[in-house]
Amino acid sequence: MRDEKRKMLPVGIESFDTIRTENFYYIDKTGLIRELLENWGMVNLFTRPRRFGKSLNMSMLKTFFEIGCKRELFEGLEIRKEAELCEKYMGQFPVIALSLKGVIRKGLCHGPRHDGFRDWGGGYAVSVFKGKRGVDGLGEKQV
User: Fold this and answer.
1) 24 or 111, higher pLDDT
2) Whole-angstrom distance between the N-terminal and C-terminal Cα of the chain?
3) What is the pLDDT of residues 85-109, one digit of tens each?
4) Would you state the torsion angle of the CA atoms of residues 120, 123, 125, 126, taken in this order, to the nearest 10 degrees?
5) What's residue 121's pLDDT?
6) Which end of the chain has fewer surrounding CB within 10 Å, N or C?
């Protein structure tokens, strides 16, 4: 007989909402929210190896900041100790969340070596085209 109160491991689950509502184990990373707000930058880069929780952290940030935030998802977590911060920022912003995780890469760039992505200093740059001009890496080129 299965113990109904036993927490499950969230293998492959990257939705903060699902983890918090479906009784999965969750290691509290909500302190990241305070760190981001205290050390604000125009752009914040999150670099971690595969399977280190980048998507889950992005889902947590989205859930915290988006209008209509389910505040109960954050009950008992570190960020709730920051009452002033929560009052000022929680659920106050429209959020656009984009993930390229499921993008089919083939055909974005040419050549068999890159299969859709262009090698760029150890990372990847995706070419995005708009109208007759396109952005390629750090500069523009004629398309």
Assistant:
1) 24
2) 63
3) 999 999 999 998 877 777 665 555 5
4) 140
5) 38
6) N
